[in-house]
Amino acid sequence: MNFSFLKNWIYFSALLFSSIVLAQKDFAYFKKELDLSLAKSEEYLKIKNDRIRGLKNTIYEASTAQVRYTIYTKLFHEYRSYQSDSALVYARKAVNTATLLTKKELHQSQFDLASILTTLGTYDQALAVLNSVESQIMPTEKGRFFWTKENVYGGLANYANDADEKKKYIQQSKLFRTKAIAHLPKNETLYYIALSGQLLNQKKYLQAYQLLFPVFNRTPKTDPNRAVIAYIVSETFRYRKSKEEEKKWLAISAISDLELVKKENISLRKLALLLHEEGEIETAYEYTKRSLDDAVFCNSKLRTYEISKMLPIINESYEAKNKSNQSQLIVFLISVSILSLFLIGVLILLFKQMNKLAKAQKNVEQANHQLSIANQQLQGFNTALNQTNSALAETSLLKEIYIGRYMDQCSIYIGKMEEYSQKLKVMATAGKVNDLISTVKSKAFIDKELKEFYSQFDQTFVQLFPTFVEEFKTLLTEPETLVVKKGELLNPELRIFALIRLGIKDSAKIADFLRYSPSTIYNYRSQIKNKARGPREEFEMKVMRIGTKSD
pLDDT at residue 534 above 90? Predict the structure, then answer.
C-alpha cells in the first residue's frame, strides 16, 4: 500500500471522526465544560504563573543576546493576552536586545511591540512603530507586517464614533487584510484566519466554515489561535442564523481562553449577550462580570470599552430579576416572622451565647494579629540574616581564595628574589661590574613580574566572577568599545572596576595597585561612567551587584 495514501487516509479519517464527535455534542454539553473551566481558573492561573516564573529564572543564565531575545519573546507571548502592561515591558526588552541581532529578529520584535500597543489602545504609537520599519521589511515579513496593520485599523474602527471616520478605518483594515493574505505562507494558521475574515466580509459563510473546521481540528489545545478559530466559526453560524451552533462554538472558544488564561478575549462576552437575550439573566451577568474583570486585569482598552457598553443592559435585567426575587423574599420573611414569634425565647438565649462567642472570637483575632506581627518581624529578621550570611559567604570565599593566592605568590616571589640575588652575586664575584650595573638599572625584571602578577590577578578574579565581563558590558551603551587584547582576560578599565567590585574604591589605592597615577585612574573611571546605561552616579553601585542573583 502507498504510504502517502495511508497517511492521508488516516488524517481524513481523524478529521471525519472529530466532525462526528463535535456534531453529536450540543451547547448544553459545552456549557457544562465551560462552567467547569471557570471553576478551575485558579488551577490554570497557577500553571501559567509557574511557567512564567520558570522563564524569568532562565534570564540570569542567558549568556548571549540571542538567548535573552528568545526568553523575552517567550515571556511576551505568555503575557500577550494575559497582562498587557507586562507584555509591553518584554516586547520593548526584546526590541532593545534585537538591535544586537539580525534585522529579522528586530522586525519580529517590532511587530510584537505594535501588536501589544494595539491591545492597550495606543494606536498612534503602534502605527509609528510599524511606519518606522515599513521601508526595511523583507518579502517574507510582509504578511505579518500587513496583518499587524490590519489589527491596528480594526481597533481604530471599533473606537471611532464618527461614521465617515469609521468607514475609512474599515476600508484600511480590509486593504491590509487583503495584502496580508497575499503574503502570508499558505500553511500558516494566520493565513486561514485572515482568509476566513475576508470570506465573511464577502458573505461566503459556508466557505469560511469549510475552510476553518479542518484547521480547528488540527490545532492543538496549547495554541492560542484555537480560541480565535472557534470564535470565527461561531461567526459563520451567526450569519447563517444558527444560534445553538453559534453558542456551542462560542463556548468552545471561551473554554480555550480560560485554559490558556487569556484575559484579552471576546467569546465569553458574546455568549453572555446571547444568553441574556434568551432570559438566562444570572448566567449572562456572571459571564459578563468575569469578562469585565479579565479585560480590566489585562488592561485591554478595546475589550473594556466593548463590555462597558453592554454591561448596563445586562446589569439592569439582573437588578430587575433581583427585585422580583426580593418581593418574593419579603412575603416569605413575613411568614417566617410570624412563626418566629414562638421562638423568641430561644433566640434570646442564642443571642447571649453568640455575644460570648463573639468576645472569644475577638480575643482569638487579637492573638492571631499579634502572632501575625511577630511572624512578619521574624521574616524580616530572617531576610536580613540571609542577606548577611550571603555577604559573609562571599567575603569568606574572597578571603580564602586571595589568601591562598597571596601565599603562593609570596613563596614564588621569594624564590625569584633568591635567584635574582644569586645572579647578582655571581656577577659581582666574577667581576662583571658593567653587567651588574646594567642588570640593576634594567626594569625588565620588574615589568615581567608585574605582567605575571596582573595575569594572576585576572585569573583569580575571573574565577570568582566568571560572568563579570559580560555583565559589565550590559551596563554600557557602547560595549563594543571595551576591547580586551588577545591572550588577556581583563584590560586596564576592567581591572579598575574589578577592584571596585572587590570593595577597593579609593582611586589612590587603585593607582598604587595598577602602577598608574591617581589622575589616570580618575580619567578611566569618568570615561566609563560617561558610557553607562542610566544615571552615571548609580553605575558603580550596579557594578557591585555583578555576580549576585537577585530578581
Answer: no
